[in-house]
Each structure stands twice: as structure tokens, then as C-alpha cells.
Design brief:
With 263 residues, the protein is mainly alpha-helical. Helix content is 76%, strand content 0%. It contains ten helices and no strands.
Length: 263
């Protein structure tokens, strides 16, 4: 970069105050002391863990993997259905939460409280609550994912709507466009890339979440990992874990490609 006189300028990196570094380290040390973390015990136990894993889990046993494919597909479909339904409902929620699309203050406040509850209750807590209502089954996992995803996407959509530049909307207002026309022609076209990005990001989260939900009896492949571990079938459990790692990596690869196309 050069100034008007042709002199080369270098950008100075921002400096982090020493007091900030010292304060961060102090908080970290205090947290370790409060948690009573014994690093000596932790490091000494690590070789034993590696030995146990190599002896009991290796090599992975894929002999009965075909029986688990329906449950693996079920896990993926949980994430697909939950993300699809949540994104549709969250679009309405985002429109209610955003100041650009909802000028009624009390309605925004009510919506903010409702979606904050959905967002701030972890999906595992939703699953535990729903198990008491519906019992163990697929409905529990699906509803838990929908509730948690709806809260996350509603706020994310609203923030993206608030960040849209107002110049195009002002131009539409100047020519006498109605609120519906401003929404359709001025807001939504600018909002689509953010909608796709947030929805795909939530799908990645839901793939991982549906695995964990299965381990608490909410359906999917997670229950088989739990079962194999309890029955000491470590080789079969490792095969499932590796399959899930491959599934998550494939999901990230596909969603990253899709996100790249809408930027």
C-alpha cells in the first residue's frame, strides 16, 4: 500500500494490551485451580488410555455394519427433516424478530422471549424432557432438534436481516412500493445468501446432534454405539464411530461446496 507521495506504507498489526493477556492468563489459572485439574495425573493416564484403546478397540469390526445402515440413514434423515422444518418456521421467526421487517415493538419482544427459550435450552435437555412426555423413540429426537434449531436459526436470520443495507429499500419506498413489495423485492433477495449459509451450518450441527441424541434413546445410530460400548463390543463401536466421522466430514465437504456457490 502506498500514500499519495508514492511512499510504501506498512499496516501495523493491532497491539494486544499486556493487561489483557495477564488478565486472561489469571482467569485461566483460576479456572484450573477451581476445577482441581491435576495435570500430572492427566499426563500419566494418557499412555494407559492409548494402550487400552489400541488393545480393546483396534481393529474396527465392520462385519455387521450392514445391519446398522438403516439407523445411519435414520440419523441423516433426522437432520434433514429437522433442518428443513426449522428453517421454514425460523424464517417467520426471523421476520418477527427483525426491526427491518417488524416495527411492532411488543411483538418483537414476545418473539424474542419465546425464541430465546428455544435457543438457550440445550437439545439434550429438550430430549430428556420429551422422553418423559413421549417415551423413547424417533419423535423425541426430531422434536428436540427442531426446537433447538428453530431458536438458533430465528436469531441468526433476524441478525442477517438487520444487516441488510437500507438503500434499496429506501429507493423502493420512494417510488411508492408497498411493504410486501419491499419485502419481496428489496429484502429477501439480499437475505438469500445468509439464509442458505445459516441453514447449511445448522444442518452440520444437526448431523452431530442427532448422533448424540441417539445415545439418550432418541433414535438414530447413537443408540447402537451406546449398546456396543455397554456390551464391550469395542471393535464394532469403533467401526460405527469411524463411519460417523466419515459422514460428518462428507457433510462438511458438501455444505462448503454449496455455500461457495451462493456467495
Amino acid at each position: 500500500m502506498r500514500d499519495s507521495g508514492g511512499v510504501k506504507l506498512t499496516k501495523t498489526p493491532p497491539r494486544v494490551p499486556a493487561i489483557s493477556i495477564a488478565g486472561t492468563l489469571a482467569v485461566l489459572v483460576a479456572a484450573f485451580m477451581f476445577l482441581e485439574v491435576d495435570f500430572v495425573e492427566l499426563l500419566s493416564a494418557f499412555p494407559a488410555f492409548i494402550g487400552f484403546f489400541a488393545e480393546r478397540f483396534m481393529p474396527p469390526d465392520f462385519s455387521g455394519f450392514g445391519e446398522y445402515l438403516p439407523l445411519l440413514l435414520e440419523t441423516v434423515l433426522f437432520a434433514v427433516v429437522a433442518t428443513y422444518l426449522s428453517s421454514v418456521l425460523a424464517l417467520v421467526g426471523g421476520l418477527l424478530l427483525s426491526e427491518r421487517t417488524n416495527s411492532i415493538a411488543w411483538l418483537r419482544f414476545v418473539a424474542k422471549v419465546a425464541f430465546s427459550v428455544l435457543r438457550n435450552v440445550p437439545y439434550l435437555v429438550w430430549a430428556v424432557i420429551l422422553v418423559y412426555i413421549f417415551g423413547i423413540g424417533n419423535m423425541v429426537g426430531l422434536l428436540a432438534l427442531i426446537f433447538a434449531t428453530l431458536g438458533l436459526l430465528s436469531r441468526s436470520y433476524a441478525e442477517s436481516l438487520n444487516e441488510i443495507a437500507g438503500s434499496k429499500m429506501e429507493a423502493l419506498q420512494a417510488v411508492g412500493a408497498s411493504k410486501a413489495q419491499i419485502l419481496v423485492h428489496g429484502i429477501l433477495p439480499e437475505f438469500v445468501p445468509a439464509l442458505v449459509n445459516w441453514t447449511l451450518f445448522s444442518f452440520e450441527i444437526n448431523i452431530r446432534a442427532s448422533i448424540i441424541l441417539g445415545m439418550v434413546g432418541a433414535g438414530g445410530i447413537g443408540i447402537m454405539i451406546q449398546t456396543n460400548l455397554r456390551l464391550f463390543r469395542y471393535h464394532s463401536a469403533l467401526a460405527l464411530i469411524l463411519a460417523l466421522v466419515a459422514l460428518v466430514l462428507l457433510t462438511e465437504f458438501v455444505t462448503n461446496k454449496l455455500r461457495g456457490r451462493v456467495r
